[in-house]
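Incident log entry.

Two folding requests arrived from the same account within the same minute. Monitoring flagged them as a possible duplicate submission, but the sequences differ. Recording both here for audit purposes.

Request one:
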Amino acid sequence: MPDLPASVRVGIDIGGTGTRFAAIDAEGVVVARHTVRTPVAVDAGAATAFLADGIAVVTAGAGGQVGPATISGVGIGASGPVDADGIVRNPHTLPGFSDIALAPLVTAASGAPCVVESDAVAAAVAEATVGAGRGAADLLHVTIGTGIGVAVVRHGSPVLGADGFQPEAGHLDVPDEEPAPCYCGRTRCWEQTASRWALQRLAGVEDVGGLDRLAAAALDGVPTAQAVFDRYGQRVGLGLRTLVTVLRPTRVVIGGGGARFLDAYRDATVRTVRAVALHGLDLDLRATALDDDGGAVGAALLAAI
């Protein structure tokens, strides 16, 4: 059995559906992982206990046969908004973790320093450091999951809004055939038209397995399947072209559950973005290299910044 590290950083990716825990070594390699459904109706004590239990699982796994590993830091990436003080402000999809000072509670429970950021920032930092954005001077990362998270990393550091908040650029006004109302207040919101849930609704399937089969059919040239992913790719492109025009990134990485289907909708997305000539940039569009680990790995990396 290979030697496992005695000291690790732990990253936690708290999503609206599931929470991923990962322990990484000094090189950013995942040495243990654990995934569990995110609790909804919990108070601060139960939320802290949930996080502490997950930390215990991955540090025990990272320690291997010789006992749990020492934790040098804990990073949490949560579905935002997350304010400048590291407080999650998302009662809509993370009610059990919102409006709580999680960092000191987790530090007290784990004995390690803790930082809290948005999951979008965490995923972007991971891709920029050890993933599909590696080597690029800057990176626009779009996480397509239960919602849509957007973050920019430049020279290794996340770019925040002027007030210290991570910009919630998953919430953009986009044209669509029908109203797509969102809790953010928009009647036609990018998150509601282009999230993975939106893809499932568009495809008329109940699970990711159904999307896998439909994507395979689209890549095999089945017209009805291609039509679904062409429409979805257009929806992704409608928001992305605004971001590319404004932010002018060198590279764009798609992460989250929507990344696994990128091959089926890439062409439609690129066509939609390139239809707007103002940005004057080639679209270097890539899928995540870290898959579902990205948010947790990035959160762990943030613990060292």
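Request two (distinct sequence, not a duplicate):
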Amino acid sequence: MKTTDIICIGEVLIDFIGHEVNTSINRTKDYHRFLGGSPTNVAVNASRLGLKSILVATCGQDGLGDYIVRKLKANEVNTNHICKLESAPTSVIFVSKSTETPDFIPYREADCQILEHQLSDEVIADAKIYHTTCFALSKNPARETILNRAKKAKELGLQLSIDINFSERIWPNREEAKRVIASYLLNDPLVKLSEDDCYRLFAEVKSEDYIFDYFHNLGATTICLTKGKNGVVLSDKNHGLFFQEALPINEVKDATGAGDAFWTGFLYAQLQQRNLEDSISIAQKLAAIKLQNVGRLPDGIDFKEYLKA
């Protein structure tokens, strides 16, 4: 019987999110500190949903690294696979608070120093899902570690997953990015990407048909394309196309992490053997809560009950 629901491997960092809404970084005076990194968000969200999650990541042996580990432990995420480096500080990103896609400036240091010894075959074998991101794959040694461990995860029967959160600011070499993504997609992961991700990856607007064909041809069976207020389209090789409209939201307070909340909800539903339509609905519900709150998912909500309703 497997005891770990999800291994998240990739970037852990600190998001300094601007205090003023819809203000450029140029004009933002004050920032609030939040635990960040897409796989980190998924690991924390998963734990909040009652799943057993492990984060495999690297930070600095510094005050921000201490803060990261403290916050992860407070959220009951397994931190046994976090490495703290003396040689590099914790990575940080300054983010504008936005109701649309936020602007950001990354200062990357320790996050990409993920090594093979941080994740053993035994730990992988005890898990159900192996999840990572395009951001995490953008630099070595993390890239090689993640690809090698992904291959082992596939051999051991795990469901793989990736958020293709591509940004040319994180990964200037688009062609290299496409090759590395193609390598990961040989493992048939569940794929999550947004319209913004696609625009950045292809450097132009592409049709939904083009996007789905492109990633299906690389080996992905299930592809989930989020379109902000225009809803979600999912393409599955076996079950066809699904579209769901966005949920109505009174006031969007912070879009940072909304995609991670969405994907956590989707993976949570998949672990429960829910069908694709239900999985999208559950994902949208979790994203809706995140959009209406700054920082992490709020306290005081019984998420299991909320997602049932």
